[in-house]
Design goal:
The structure holds two protein chains of two kinds. By secondary structure, chain A is mainly α. Chain A has helices spanning about 1-30, 40-55, 60-85, 90-115, 140-160, 165-175, 175-180, 185-210, 220-230, 235-255, 265-275; strands spanning about 130, 135-140. The chains are: A mainly alpha, B mainly alpha. Chain B: This is Branched-chain amino acid ABC transporter permease.
Chain lengths: ~290, ~325
């Protein structure tokens, strides 16, 4: 029982991080039909911005702020301007391939310019354990989970309650009609990219203290975010949250109870099953299909 | 002008062939290996080009089929079978598995299909790594010989290069026949407008499966040539990265263009080698080049050529129109 609670809590913490990344992923898809194959590398990169700032003797809070700012600039605005904008009208596939190349670019660029080794990353949430029902629960896990959920609900509130948020939703649902209604569609799409950049930066700051900052750490995270987004539902934020949490828990239980060789296969089977039997995702709306 | 273009194309084809036949004579052992690898990857990319470029079905599993082909040949060859048997098994097995992988495509499209095939690709990798009784796991399989064709051994790098080239020629001829056959037309109809194809009596269901199966079989064929090329088969080359790389070759070369995969594979296999002088940075430069190219021309390298000839035609036509109206104008009052 104690073991189960530990697994569940660790799973929820990982899952909350997956959810952050998956939400950004679905937002980009909704507003600009961008399948970002570099999303995992987007999570890897901000940690290195912070490490670079720390190396210049910046205090942690300042380094985190710099990391966030640099992410918004590079992964948000620059990514949209330089990569997405020129390619958008040519369809989904060339853009997807371009993000694949971007992921190689970021990964190899960090490896060459910073380090090929895993670097320790300071945690800004408290460590230690608390006892609960006879289980030793890591405070770090709990605080990651809580922090991520707060971010998600704040984002949800922003999208639902504020005028800008509603304009963003309108843009995602139907850009032409949104434009007719006087919504600055271009700016709304830019906001989406900035939100994605903010989400991956936060995910990066939360996950790097646990798994260390390494140039290749985006590979597994990116894949997990894809799976979470699809399992939960590609077109709903609550789907990405549920998908992320579910995947985190399934992942952790599979690691404990399925053979170590095939633990990686469990999320994939989940993915295939969901796509084949409920393509809109567990919590998504059914999308109109062209065929 | 049509005859002119046809002559030009034939000349380019002959020059390319001559280049491929002669260039390895002046290359080092490693250079010949890279050229052989280019031929193998071209075959795999041609298969994906059929599935994606002609039939419009996204697949992120081509690397897995190269793996299946490689393992089929490695396992059967170590048991002492002549090359033709493992080759046929590799192609047949990939065809059958590709057919099955096509079934999800009947239900879902586009990015969903991409993710099903992505999951399949990762699962196949796990099987290669974990089923030690069959694949020897991470230790890999070695100790199988390169084939002897009509009594000629292909053991030397140069001989094996010509063997790869012959296999590439067979694959090219096969694909040229396919895309010109009624099947090829049906594939294009499927890509352009599935509903209309269905209403015109094209059995879209069968052709979707067929597009997957034939494309995958060519992946298996490439794998069957890859195994004797490297003479050691382990799971490492067959991760998702290979599938993504092959997809990149197809798009970079020009998806849906017959010779797109040749160029795409050349960029993906040869360009990183030329960039070796940049040491660790070569992949960064390569990735930047691919991004730049796609931003400039999302239809790939042959898309650039296509656009260029189209522009020239338009310019020539407007020049002719201008000349015609100039010669007409004096008659006008």
């Amino acid at each position: 029982m104690a073991n189960m609670i530990n697994l569940l809590m660790a799973g929820l913490a990982t899952g909350a991080i997956y959810a952050l990344v998956a939400i950004g992923f679905t937002l980009l898809w909704q507003t600009s039909q961008t399948i970002n194959f570099a999303q995992g590398e987007f999570v890897m990169l901000p940690a290195f911005f912070v490490l670079a700032a720390l190396n210049l003797k910046a205090p942690l809070w300042l380094a985190l702020l710099i990391g966030l700012g640099a992410s918004l600039l590079v992964l948000g605005a620059l990514f949209k301007r330089a990569v997405v904008d020129p390619m958008l009208r040519h369809g989904v596939l060339p853009l997807a391939i371009c993000t694949m190349a971007l992921s190689i670019f970021l990964k190899e660029g960090v490896k060459e310019s910073y380090s090929a080794e895993a670097s320790p990353f300071p945690s800004f949430v408290p460590g230690g354990n608390v006892s609960l029902l006879g289980a030793q629960i890591s405070i770090q896990s709990v605080s990651i989970f809580v922090f991520a959920l707060v971010v998600v609900f704040a984002l949800q509130a922003f999208l639902m309650r504020t005028s800008t948020g509603r304009q963003m939703q309108a843009t995602a649902q139907n850009p032409s009609v949104a434009r007719l209604l006087g919504i600055p569609v271009e700016r709304m799409i830019l906001y989406t990219f900035l939100i994605n950049a903010g989400l991956v930066a936060l995910a990066s700051f939360l996950v790097s203290p646990v798994y260390l900052a390494k140039f290749s750490s985006g590979e597994t995270l990116g894949l997990a975010a894809f799976i979470a987004a699809i399992v939960g539902g590609f077109n709903q934020i609550r789907g990405a949250i549920a998908g992320g949490l579910l995947l985190g828990v399934v992942d952790n239980f599979a690691a404990a109870y399925v053979s170590t060789q095939y633990r990686g296969a469990v999320p994939l089977f989940l993915l295939i099953a969901v796509i084949l039997f409920r393509p809109q995702g567990l919590f998504g709306r059914a999308e109109e299909r062209t065929v | 002008m049509g005859a002119n273009a046809a002559t030009l194309r034939a000349a380019a084809f002959a020059a390319g062939l001559l280049f491929l036949l002669l260039v390895p004579l002046g290359l080092s052992r490693y250079g010949v290996y890279i050229m052989s690898l280019w031929a193998v990857m071209t075959i795999a990319a041609m298969g994906l080009n059929l599935t994606l470029g002609y039939a419009g079905q996204v697949s992120l599993a081509q690397g897995a089929f190269v793996g299946i082909g490689s393992y089929a040949v490695a396992i059967l060859s170590t048991n002492g079978m002549p090359f033709i048997v493992p080759l046929l098994v590799a192609v047949g097995l990939s065809f059958a598995i590709g057919w099955l992988l096509g079934y999800p495509a009947l239900r879902v499209q586009h990015h969903y299909l991409a993710f099903v095939t992505l999951a399949f690709s990762t699962l196949v990798y796990l099987v290669f790594r974990n089923e030690e009784w069959l694949t020897k796991g991470i230790y890999g399989i070695m100790g199988f010989k390169r084939p002897t064709i009509f009594g000629i051994s292909t053991a030397t790098p140069l001989a094996f290069y010509y063997f790869c080239l012959a296999m590439l020629a067979i694959a090219t001829a096969f694909l040229a026949w396919i895309v010109r056959s009624p099947w090829g037309r049906a594939f294009v109809a499927l890509r352009e407008n599935p509903v209309r194809a269905l209403s015109l009596g094209v059995d879209t269901r069968r052709y979707t499966l067929m597009a997957f199966a034939i494309g995958s079989a060519m992946g298996g064929f490439a794998g069957a040539v890859y195994a004797p090329l490297v003479e050691f088969v382990d799971p490492t080359p067959f991760t998702l990265a290979l599938s993504l790389n092959i997809l990149m070759m197809v798009i970079v070369g020009g998806s849906g263009f017959f010779f797109g995969p040749f160029l795409g594979a050349a960029i993906a296999v040869l360009l990183p080698e030329w960039l070796r002088f940049a040491h660790g940075w070569y992949l960064v430069i390569y990735a930047a080049f691919v991004m730049g190219l796609l931003i400039y021309s999302p239809t790939g390298l042959l898309g650039v050529a296509d656009r260029w000839t189209a522009n020239r035609k338009t310019r020539r036509a407007s020049a002719e129109r201008a000349a015609a109206s100039a010669s007409l104008s004096p008659e006008k009052p």
